[in-house]
Amino acid sequence: MSQLDAKKQMIDGVEYEVRMLSATRGTKLLVKLGRMLGPAFAELARGEGGIDREIDGALFAGTVSALFASADPDEVDAILKELAEVTLADGKGLRPIYDIHFAGKIGRLMKWAGFALQVQYEDFFGALVGVLAEAGLASAMGSLSPKASTGASGA
Question: Strands (DSSP E) along the chain, which ranges?
Answer without folding.
Answer: 6-11, 14-19, 87-89, 92-93, 153-154
